[in-house]
Amino acid sequence: LLGQILDHWFESEPLKATLATDAVIGAMASPHTPGSGYVLLHHVMGELEGRRGAWGYVAGGMGALSQAIAHAATTQGAHIFADKAVCHVLLGRDGEAQGVALLDGTEVRSKLVLSNASPQITFLELIPQEQLPKDFVQRIQQVDTRSPVTKINVAVDRLPSFLAAPNARDGQPLPHHQCSIHLNCEGTQLLHQAFTEAAQGHPSSRPMIELCIPSALDPGLAPPGCHVVSLFTQYTPSVLAGGQSWDEQARNAYADTVFDCIEDYAPGFKASVIGRDILTPPDLERIFGLPGGNIFHGGMSLDQLYFTRPVPSYSGYRSPIPGLYLCGSGAHPGGGVMGAAGRNAAQVAIKDFRHL
């Protein structure tokens, strides 16, 4: 229980609430939810360039990381087809994976298939259900994929100026502009209240906001004087109460709530906005294939971790389909842009490949 851990070590409510955001990030959970302490551990474990618990910014945006991995792969002879949708996994007579079929009808044959799609897409959409054990299918269907995240990307014509730390006269970024800025985090009770509203099917009236300004570190992302602002917000339910849909009106109403909150901390922010892109949980699912909009392909709760991720008996990257491996966020140890699931899955696949 994260609340107990933070109360034991800290006295300051703003500090506790700011730390608590990493315990609920991407999770439909409150700082008072049992098991939330693990999610915080998950986000501070490991190190970056020798600094324990540190996070880093990828120059050029997160896509640059994908491009770096792609370049390393192609250098070793890999062929990458990023614009080819996979229709289903090809199976042999004995039910083993033999490659994939693309949406355009092309068949790509291989001895092994590794999927970094979610467990739901991999096993419920790309594999015929009759080829899988019924209890396995049922467990995959029961994975909790609820997500509280709405991502809002914003273009602004000037740097936000916060009441707590006004901008310099030259308008240049200050140290706090180059960090993660947490708003509506004066106390853990605020986070709990925001969660409670979403749990009842209503977007939070005072949402948790993590505001980053990537262009403060990476000026090439925006024209001179302008900036891009990334808003990672919670809590928004995947399914709204009363059967209401996340239509344009609902999406804009929630974004307006977020912008009103930011305006309270940084007057003039709303007037500086040139454009915005709102991605609710259904949008994140539709565009990126994230089940329920969940950035981890499934909740990082204690019942969905370690030997139960994605389901019991299949935490070792192999699947009921011989030659088919799961290597994405839905596999052990979960998401977080650390590559552990992919590395581990690759080692298992290489071990098996040597016996083919």
From TrEMBL:
A molecular function GO annotation: oxidoreductase activity
One Pfam family it belongs to: Amino_oxidase
The Amine oxidase domain, residue ranges: 34-177
Gene Ontology CC entries for this record: mitochondrial matrix
Compartments, as annotated in UniProt: Mitochondrion matrix
UniProt keyword list: FAD, Flavoprotein
Chief place where the protein resides: mitochondrion
SUPFAM superfamilies registered for this protein in UniProt: FAD/NAD(P)-binding domain
Keyword Kinase: no
Family as reported in the entry's similarity comment: Belongs to the carotenoid/retinoid oxidoreductase family.
Protein name: Pyridine nucleotide-disulfide oxidoreductase domain-containing protein 2
Species per Swiss-Prot/TrEMBL record: Gymnorhina tibicen (Australian magpie)
